[in-house]
């Protein structure tokens, strides 16, 4: 229940600095740090915490929701040591949080 309370509080509160709360939560609970960083669009910090804690499913979903090609380019560079794990996770979990999102125009192999 303790974790559930913190999760609900971070998800619903609007009056906190996500970067400060995320840094505070990193050592205590990386998932809470992820929530804070995601809420505040702290991309660099979110990528770092998800890489360090093997949270590739969360990272893939965040990147898909953000829809910023530069972020995908950043994590998919060939010398990123976490690249394979992220790609594997995207292959395993086809971003279930994005069902119903329309595919880009001209995408032959995408389903809407």
Notes on the protein architecture:
This protein is mainly alpha-helical and 112 residues long. It is globular. 61% of the residues lie in helices and 0% in strands. It is built from 7 helices and no strands. It has one domain.
The tally of helices reads 7
Q: Indicate the radius of gyration in whole angstroms.
A: 15 Å
Query: Number of folding domains?
Result: 1
Roughly what percent helix?
55-70%
Query: Separation of termini?
Result: 38 Å
Classify the beta-strand content into a percent band. under 5%
The topology string of helices and strands comes to: HHHHHHH
Low-confidence stretches: 1-5, 100-112
How many individual β-strands? 0
Form type: globular
Structural class of the helices, strands and pairings? mainly alpha
Mean pLDDT: 80
Quick structural gist:
The chain is an all-alpha fold and 112 residues long. Helix content is 61%, strand content 0%.
SSE topology:
Layout: H1 2-12, H2 18-26, H3 30-39, H4 43-52, H5 56-66, H6 69-75, H7 83-92
Give a quick set of tags describing it.
single chain, 112 residues, mainly alpha, 7 helices, 61% helix, globular, disordered N terminus
